[in-house]
Amino acid sequence: MYQCRECHQVFSETKGTFLQGLRKPISLIINVLKSRSEGTGLNAVCRIFEISKNTLLDWEQRFAGLRGPLLLDTLLHTFLTQLIEGDEVYTKIEKNRPPEESEGWTVVLMDRASRFIWAVQCGKKDRDLFLSAIQTVMDIVARTGDVTLITDGERRYGLLLFEVCQELFRSGRPGRPRTVLRRGVRVRLKNKGSQSHRRGRKCPKYQAPCPEHPETPQNILNSEIHANHVEALNASLRRRNSAYRRKTNTYAKKKSGLQRTLDVFWVVHNFIRKHFTTQQVPAVALGILKEGLSWGQILGIQMRLIPSI
Questions:
Q1: What radius of gyration do the chain's Cα atoms show?
Q2: In the structure, what pLDDT confidence band is assigned to residue 201 with cuts at 50, 70 and 90?
Q3: Beta strands in 124-227 (DSSP E)
Q4: Can you tell me the distance from the alpha carbon of 124 to that of 106, in angstroms, rounded to the nearest whole number?
Q5: Residue 156 and residue 129 in contact, taking contact as beta carbons nearer than 8 Å
Q6: 295 exposed, middle or buried (CB, 10 Å; 0-12, 13-18, 19+)?
Q7: What is the distance between the alpha carbons of residues 257 and 56, in angstroms, rounded to a whole number?
């Protein structure tokens, strides 16, 4: 217990944290969240640990609320370079619907070197979904001098980034100045599908979908234009989130519930769990932490001290 020196109000050390108002043992809460983050379904966890469904939903909602403060703290750092891979993973919500009508499309943006997930957002595969992910890229551009975005066939990443991250390049020659991406920002697209049946000029296998700044270094090899690392992450997401499993009918009930589980996955992946390849916590590999956070440290973060985004 603590006492304020100004107003003399007494408060607990868990005030404003995940544990505020909870009476269950911390060890039980950690084991429940660990089980959920390893892919166990919601009803199965309730049966195993003998807790109610509303209790588990409340714990997950509190834990998912840590994403805003942690992302804001991450964006306060400055980075030298960022090579970001973008891809999508799909699941069904509520019932089996056509893919174009489903809200189960999930956009994933991940830094290749550290495996840090910058964005994981679900919704319909439309402009709003991709624009929400591009806004995160814009925040990264503001803190980084060299940003490269690589997509595996989806052009909307580059086109939307060009809309919100463009500038006029004045070369000194007569005529209207060109509109290009900001200096240091690059977008590369890998064209998918066979083009042997097409007539005329064929599209290149690797290309930049939008004009870039002439002073931006063009040092990306064709062999580096792929999204293999985020594809592997999508496979891990299907194992660790029951709503993405293909061989069962465990669909997500609502879009908000699916996003809640994605926020839990984001916190655990970036700040707690060591990555299999790098053998480091992604936040440590990115350089924003010296060592990974434990479950107890995560649950003790003062969420009221940092405004959510």
A1: 22
A2: low
A3: 144-151, 166-169, 178-181, 185-190, 206-207
A4: 8
A5: no
A6: middle
A7: 12
Q: What region does 279 belong to: left with phi over 0, alpha with psi -120 to 50, or beta?
A: left
Do the beta carbons of residue 138 and residue 118 sit within 8 Å?
A: no
Q: Where are the beta strands (DSSP E) in 124-247?
A: 144-151, 166-169, 178-181, 185-190, 206-207
Q: Specify the 3-state DSSP secondary structure of 89.
A: strand
- Pick from 84, 106, 102, 86: nearest CA to 94: 102
Q: Which residue has the tokens 């991406």?
A: 181
| Paired tokens of 287 | 């350089």
pLDDT at 10 over 90: no
CA dist., res. 257 & res. 248, Å (int): 18
Span between the terminal Cα atoms of the chain, in Å: 30
3-state secondary structure of 90: strand
**3-class SS at 254?**
coil
Q: Using an 8 Å Cβ cutoff, are 125 and 91 in contact?
A: no
Residue with tokens 């997509």: 151
Confidence of residue 174 (pLDDT cuts 50, 70, 90): confident
Q: What is the three-class DSSP state of 230? A: helix
Encoded tokens for 251: 């669909």
Inter-residue long-range contacts of 257-260, CB under 8 Å, 24+ positions, other chains counted: 258/91, 258/93, 258/103, 258/104, 258/106, 258/122, 259/64, 259/121, 259/122, 260/60, 260/61, 260/64
Residue 283's nearest CA partner among 94, 144, 79 is 79
Q: Enter the pTM of the model.
A: 0.88
